[in-house]
Amino acid sequence: MACRLVCLKVYKGQWCILLAVSTLLWMLTLFNINSSNVVGSDRIKDEVIQLSERYIRTLARDSEGVVDGPYAGRFTAYDLKKTMAVLLENMIERLDRIEHRLNISSNLTKPSLSGDISMTHSLYAKDLINGEHELCALTDKERQLYPKCEQKIEWMKNMWQSDPCYASFGVDGSTCSFIMFLSEVEGWCPRSAWHGSNKAPVEKNSSDNLAKINHDLEGLMKLLVDPNERQGYAWMRMRIKRIWPRWETAVKSLAAKQDLTKRKQKKILVHLGLLSKQSGWKFAEMQFKGGPLGELVQWSDLITALYVLGHELTITSEVEQLANIVSQLPAANSPCQSRKELPVDIIYIDIVGLKQFKKYVKNGYGKFSCLVRVVDSFGTEPGFNLRTFAKQRKKLSSWGGQDLNPQQFFTMFPHSPDNSFMGFVVERHLNESNARAIQRSNMALVYGKNDYMWAGKEEYLNTVNKSEIVIHGTVYSDSDSKSPLKIPSYVINHGILNGEDLHKLLRQSKIFLGLGFPYEGPAPLEAIANGAVFINPKFLLPHSRNTQPFFKGKPTERELMSQHPYAEQFIGEPHVYTINIEDPDEVRTTVQKILDMEQFNGFLPYEFTEEGFIQRMNAYIEHQNFCQFQRQLNKWPPESAVKVLFGDGGKSCKDVCWEKNLICEPSHFLAANSHSILMSRGAACAANKTLTDIYYPALDTKTNDCIIQQEELLFSCVGKQDNLRRLCPCRNYFKGQSALCVGCEL
After folding, report:
1. Which of 208, 410, 575, 636 has the least C-beta neighbours within 10 A?
2. DSSP 3-state of 619
3. Contact indicator for 568, 520 with CB cutoff of 8 Å
């Protein structure tokens, strides 16, 4: 019988008991119809019911806190497994006898000569009671999908007695107990290695734990109160209040396009380490004095999106607040990595805050590392993220070496597919009627609010000034300083403007003049949205950590060929002209081309609107999961959106995919990391190798060696080498929302 075979194989789950009981009662009913022994069958039914009642009472009383057997512990419930095994074995013997008699009475079978009923058990209840272990083994496919599993098993063999917490989870020194712990608790190994089920646990959402769209602005303002009255949130509060009506409209619009009603409410910790006194960055002090605001823009928009999506937020910016929260985390200092019943689902943090978090959570950090999302404007590439690798290559800096999945870093622009693109919202201060009333003239506004950014750009600015263009600036001037600003005398400087006045100035201007720095800020997108044409300085030599002090120490090898690569690549003409500003002729020609334009229509990519931002963050929250077990089972983006391409020599996967109008998808590297897939793509492998570097999987064109990746954290979209042809997972995307594949937003 199916019930018997399934139950004897797994020996677990209340459903199996209930199935066995119901099947037994059903067969007894049939037996009543076909047998005159009604009294005997009634007695058996009463006995089964009484046995079931005793089982339920015993289960309710004794299932908590059990410590017994070779897999003892709260999460393994091995003694319960034994109890069910004995109960099932007894019930199944009864089922066999009834089935046998029913068949005889129905003339379906002949009685056996011996009268015995054969039962083929792979493991009997008495075996389990005597401590016999189940067989636990990994398949080749599981070794590929869980590359750390065997390493973790070896570590457990030597270290499982180093802390009593392992024994509390049922670890007893056996390989099976290691695999059980590493699959059920830490998620490094597949569950199928020990009990044959590799289905992701499904959590039922009740109406009480669903995320509901939130329109209460005052509730959000109450979360953004600085406990030390440093006014660290002042600028963010102003931005959120200013844009709030657009957020409300955006979330309503998105809810009309896709179902937002069945989402689980997540408990989210947001820690802004950059605002803490200990950071030394003085973001709070400089927010109204020309200090960098790009990071505060991101944090404002992130917090607002999480809030309107209905998640439960805890927001901190001071170390004391963080320490108080960490001190309440269960077993935070225990090396056991159980994430069951953690009081937080996601942690948004920056690099400074991450260091503070590690300091206070100490040995328990491993529990929370997969929950972390690092707001990291310029990104962290795999070669800098893995500490041992970066140290070996002498690339280790205070920014890198975090040993996270590279997609846990959330960037300001989609410059590296290895990281996740978070972005921000481009603010629009003017409504359409007000904007239409503003007359545009031959004005150019310079992108540079500090006078040091203007240094060395005199010839460029003089060329623009001679082209019937009046140049304006918004350069910060310190009233206490006696030194004059180092900007040309013909520039009309307005000082630091509020958002509305700045956008009025952009609406009056035809050109937004880039100076080459700052890199990749939000201002050019604001200018383009207001109809001004952005002149984007092209770099004759790439700007990188090898050529510019700004990038020194930053965990990326990116080579910027212009001040704003996103504007160049994703927007382009007629809204963006990327030119060599050191060539006066090219400057004059470009300025004249802009002046000759008849219309100056604003343009804003969907991904930088409130609605696009909410959609993207909601998709991340719903689908991204960097905890091992869930990540393997709930692969996102889905395979249907991904193609594996074999690139030409010397090209990165980022370039290989982009040439096909696709985007490199690092979450699918693991599935493509195979010698057989390399050969299926036409690689004639002279030898198969497994190495550790950012270039694999790939074919070495010099030796014809097929090389796959040994270290999962080094899968890289940007790694390239002249003699290597990369094997690249590439996904589709829809225009205006590059972070999501077609259908991934749902």
Report:
1. 208
2. helix
3. no
Which ranges constitute the DSSP H helices of 478-559? 499-508, 523-529
Tell me what pLDDT residue 176 has: 84
Question: CATH 3.40.50.2000 residue ranges in the chain?
Answer: 432-603
Closest by CA to 418, choosing from 654, 658, 737, is 654
Helix (H) or strand (E) holding 660, with range, is none
Structure tokens at 679: 């050969």
Three-state secondary structure call for residue 576: strand
- CATH superfamily, domain 432-603, is Glycogen Phosphorylase B; (3.40.50.2000)
Token readout for 698 is 């790939």
CB 697 within 8 A of CB 681: no
Residue 333, token pair as written in the block: 């200092």
DSSP per-residue letters across 329-393: STTTT-S----TT-S-SEEEE-HHHHHHHHHHHGGGHHHHGGGEEEE-TT---HHHHSHHHHHHT
Phi, psi (degrees; rounded to nearest 5) at 219: -60, -40
- Rounded Cα distance, 221 and 97, in Å: 70
Cα–Cα distances in angstroms (integers) from residue 454 to residues 54, 486, 489, 498, in the given order: 84, 8, 13, 21
**Identity of the residue numbered 10:** V
Phi-psi region of 579 (alpha: psi -120 to 50; beta: other; left: phi over 0): beta
Specify the DSSP element, H or E, that contains 213.
none
Helix (H), strand (E), coil (C) string for 140-179: HHHHHHCCCHHHHHHHHHHHCCCCHHHHHCCCCCCHHHHH
Query: What was the pLDDT predicted at 681?
Result: 92
The reported pTM is: 0.77
Token pair of 165 as six digits: 């917490």
Q: Are 712 and 696 in contact (CB under 8 A)?
A: no
Tell me how far apart the alpha carbons of residues 287 and 91 are, in angstroms, rounded to a whole number. 73
Helix/strand/coil for 245: helix
Q: Is the Cβ–Cβ distance between 381 and 555 less than 8 Å?
A: yes
The residue to which tokens 């005997």 are assigned? 40
Residue tagged 């996740």 (tokens):
420
How many other CB atoms are found less than 10 A from the CB of residue 350?
Answer: 23
Looking at residue 548, what is its pLDDT?
A: 94
Q: Any idea how long the chain is?
A: 746
pLDDT tens digits, residue range 12-68?
Answer: 344 455 555 555 555 555 555 444 455 555 666 566 556 665 555 555 544 444 434
